Amino acid sequence: MANYQNLLVAIDPRQDDQPALRRAVYIVQRNGGRIKAFLPVYDLSYEMTTLLSPEEASAMRQGVTNQHIAWLKQQAHYYLEAGIDIEIKVVWHNRPYEAIIQEVIADKHDLLLKMTLKHDKLGSLIFTPLDWQLLRKCPCPVWMVKDQVWPDQGSVLVAVNLSDEESYHHELNLKLVRETQDLANQIVKNPEIHLVSAYPVAPLNISVELPDFDPSVYNNALRGQHLIAMKELRQKFCIDEKYTHVHEGLPERVIPGMCDEMSAGIVVLGILGRTGLSAAFLGNTAEHVIDHLKCDLLAIKPDGFECPIKAAKE
């Protein structure tokens, strides 16, 4: 059950506004829980100097940390004065994504929120290298928040993979819909939850190489398989057929297009978190979709996901 009670907000020190913190407050005001505003800081110049003793260098690092703590308290002062439970924490660490994930592990946070920027001309979101590291490696769900107000009557869209090639997709689909329903019922009034899936068309080169191959027959059969799988999925959760969508095309085109059409407030998808050679050879379909989104994103890992980042040493 998605009952997020222990939220970690990754603060962006370059911004005077913190949409991720605002979204976290929105969640706890409706669902309860506590918030930790977390910021890793680092300045290489403090590590390179040979003129300072270890004690002096440590004192200077602490001074920088204290300055950021004061700044962060100012960022959150409206919420703190309103009685919102927000813990402020700043650490010195040269790898921000490692520091954030280690904090998730150490304090057993069940949701990570981080702001992501919106490209003014293209409309799509811009994901930084830090965003990608968190999406791929963070063991808890990651909520990427855009710097815009949540749309009125914004719906929730769940991107499901109805391919029967890999069994783990079925379990992940169930987890996505289950957690989305739990979360939406807790924090959104009368939410519309839509399920969307995309299936690819037959490659044109097959028709050339195999003259007897009929692409229309293949495409119709593939659509039929997806419709049957979608029916089974929606019936498990008592979702009306009008809230389910199966479309022909690439997921990175179909899913963002559906988000725009429905003015979605957030899209929920599963991300396998592949890295290294497995990512290079197998690819990450979710990541191609993410690159084209214009709304909030909630990325959820499958059960059994093994985080490649180890807990910090005491």
UniProtKB/TrEMBL annotation:
**Where is the protein localized?**
Cytoplasm
What's the chief localization of this chain?
Answer: cytoplasm
Q: Where is the UspA domain?
A: 4-146, 189-301
Q: Which UniProt keywords apply?
A: Cytoplasm
Gene3D superfamilies associated with the record: 3.40.50.12370
In terms of InterPro entries, this protein maps to:
UspA
Cited CDD domains: USP-E_repeat1, USP-E_repeat2
State whether keyword Cell inner membrane applies: no
What is an example of a Pfam family matching this protein? Usp
Note the superkingdom of the native organism.
Bacteria
What does this gene product do? Required for resistance to DNA-damaging agents.
In the record, the note on similarity to other proteins reads: Belongs to the universal stress protein A family.
Name of the molecule in the record: Universal stress protein E
Per the UniProt record, the lineage of the source organism begins with: Bacteria, Pseudomonadati, Pseudomonadota, Gammaproteobacteria, Enterobacterales
